[in-house]
Amino acid sequence: MTTYSLKDILDTFAKSNGKKRLIYNLGAIGGISNNAVLLFFIAMPFIEYALIFNPYVFNALGIAQCIVLYIVFLSIIMISIFMISWKIKNTVIKKITPSWKKYFEKIDLKMVLSAGATPYSKFFDYYSKGLADHKSGEELHRYLLDSFKVMEEDNKELIEAMIKDNKFN
Question: Could you report the per-residue pLDDT of 8-34, keeping only the tens digit for each?
Answer without folding.
Answer: 999 999 998 889 998 999 988 888 999
